[in-house]
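Lecture notes, continued. The same structure-token format from the folding unit now serves as the input rather than the output. Read the line below as a description of shape only.
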């Protein structure tokens, strides 16, 4: 049984895709994708030999040795791009995901990026838009009291500086209860930063986020 955030990643992968799971750890996602018939091919990559050995043990336990390929790689450094359509980078901080994308030795154009940051999601969204990527779809995954954004991004070449709402709330559907709860938590973080700094830009961000949340609470009859 996949964790909710990994299942959300799986749901954003296109049928028949050729996938690389970066930082695969125990290869739970690649095994799930292969057993469900979602992918045409899948690579499990990790930076360290220990996690990669754990991934290979999981793959062998499900009788998939030789079908799921494993690669020792620092991010995407040693991953061959040929035939690759979808790249999953999940369970890492937003800054780490940015570093992996920045140091990729080949073009990410034409690849679908499924990203699940544990922290710094606004910074990741801002980097994506500033570097010519667009977020096609974004969902929220709940694991106990924790809420995570999971996004699919593609390269369009159009660079822009996202506003406060797009940066903090992304493309989440705020009519969904978990997505709205995620947005509220992001808003509270901005409020905390506002109260600690008094910075005019952060005050403006908080006002923009508050205005959006008020609309959705009105629609729900919370006000």
């Amino acid at each position: 049984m996949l964790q909710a955030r990994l299942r959300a990643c799986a749901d954003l992968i296109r049928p028949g895709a050729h996938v690389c799971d970066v930082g695969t750890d125990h290869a739970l996602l690649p095994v799930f994708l292969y057993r469900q018939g979602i992918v045409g091919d899948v690579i499990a990559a990790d930076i360290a030999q220990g996690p990669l050995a754990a991934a290979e043990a999981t793959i062998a336990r499900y009788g998939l040795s030789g079908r799921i390929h494993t690669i020792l790689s620092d991010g995407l450094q040693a991953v061959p791009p040929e035939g690759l359509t979808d790249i999953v980078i999940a369970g890492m901080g937003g800054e780490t995901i940015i570093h992996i994308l920045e140091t990729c030795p080949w073009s990410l154009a034409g690849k679908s990026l499924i990203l699940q940051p544990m922290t710094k999601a606004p910074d990741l969204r801002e980097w994506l838009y500033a570097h010519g990527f667009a977020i096609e779809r974004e969902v929220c995954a709940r694991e106990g009291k924790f809420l995570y954004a999971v996004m699919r991004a593609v390269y369009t070449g159009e660079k822009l500086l996202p506003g406060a709402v797009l940066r903090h709330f992304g493309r989440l559907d705020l009519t969904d209860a978990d997505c709205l709860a995620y947005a509220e938590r992001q808003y509270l973080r901005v409020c905390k930063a506002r109260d600690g700094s008094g910075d005019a830009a952060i005050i403006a961000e908080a006002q923009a986020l508050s205005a959006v949340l008020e609309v959705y609470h009105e629609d729900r009859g919370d006000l």
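Point for the exam: DSSP finds eight helices and seven strands in the chain.
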